[in-house]
């Protein structure tokens, strides 16, 4: 690592208990401890969070937009995975 | 419109003791917040601009609450003469390089954390405020500690600068443990805890604990009595100039 | 190391190696996405010129945030009440934060913050010229909030719908936080305007000095703006410079009246037919002159920025060295 280049970290913030962490943005920090603190100062200064994750950007493996079709389209023609697919006689409850 | 600032050294009724405590601790927070505000636009890295401003804002918030306990916050901040300020000389010391700022932060936030921690569990007027402030101050102490480790155990240059800063400010640390009226704690015990805590951080940061005296030769450590160091007059001149140029104006 | 964000997931320029036939298919997909008002995301194929244009604009925007800290922080230590001091500190802090959000957005395009800062420091990338004007009195803090932030918001709100996802998302955050900036400026000026005669004069003087430079913030007239047409086609920009400028003037006129202050333009009047205010000619010579570096504070602003960066180098080095040591120790004990 050259001195002037602090690595980049991705910041995930849980906005309140009961919700999952959501990607908030990124920042630079020399190490994980400082990344957490910088994230606290930058991304929660208006009480936006109750918990933070920081992840080195290089540690994230992302799907490629080129694989978009093969990754995501096959799920599109399987409506039987959704409850609205099924017809239930009127008056039947708790289903 | 100018009511003279309360002088904390008069009768020792419960009321003036509380005022004295609020002034001493309020002035500490006010002055250090001002110094940290001077970093705006000058910090070593953008992330640190945000961090230093957060600390400055916490301190300014504490100052406003405490000064309001003692009187009108703006009259106290802007219309007192230098000799009426009760802050520690430590907090008025100029920012210097980043190492000096961090050493000042380490010494002061460790002190403030111990003080507020004890006040929060007591039954003084300051207990409520202290309970809130101690959380802020714990973060300031952590920030200072993290940076002390990185500067002390970073490069040769950062080690040298941090060591020098720790030495330079050491003689202002004795003053912190002069009892403050209205703050009913065991000062000697607080001092021992402070020393142990700072020593541990400095050692972990591969720094040498300064050996010099913790009070200076002449009146160092007299900030609580209203005797300050030269840079403080300039700081106040800058801070008060605009307010004083428009007597009676509202902003 | 190079700027690799999770969003890009690659340090190449995103465009997959493709033969020409593929390239034209990618281009068609890009055009279709823009036309359908979909967002372009970092790893999508994009024309190099689109990428370059975004880097230029986002970097300039980020630089403006951090240079913009200077004229205002100039008054932090002299703020005339503790309430005003807290507000101003929080505002200047937000600007640092906005700079950070924007540099992050730029980094998703494969440039590093260090590269961008180098370009700022060496004068190869610009920042908004407005910050080359000085803050001479306390009232200037109010005028910046009301007029400069007001103009910036007018410019920025449409950017929340910009075609590039990370930029649009950063702008949503910026705009949300920015709304207090303008209001505090307005409130500050109102207090001065309704204060002593000296305070009122101070407020009027500040508005006199900041009005015209604020109008220049929307950039040159549409027929002279070099990047505008392409940026609009790409939906990086949504409205023309002149449209936004007109919108801003129309918003400001009643606000100035409520303040009890005069906008320094004898030609400013309501035009019933157009349904807009007419306003006087802008001195574009001054605009180009300041842009070229001859403004009152160009030299001062860049010098302070460079100095902060250079004087901070040992601190950044120290933290990096410490991280390396900790990492190595961790491996040694593992």
TrEMBL record, chain A:
Listed name of the protein: 1,2-phenylacetyl-CoA epoxidase subunit PaaB
Gene (UniProt): paaB
- Organism equals Streptomyces noboritoensis
> What NCBIfam families does the annotation carry?
PA_CoA_Oxy2
Q: Which Gene3D superfamilies match?
A: Phenylacetic acid degradation B (3.10.20.520)
Against Pfam families, the record matches this protein to: PaaB (PF06243)
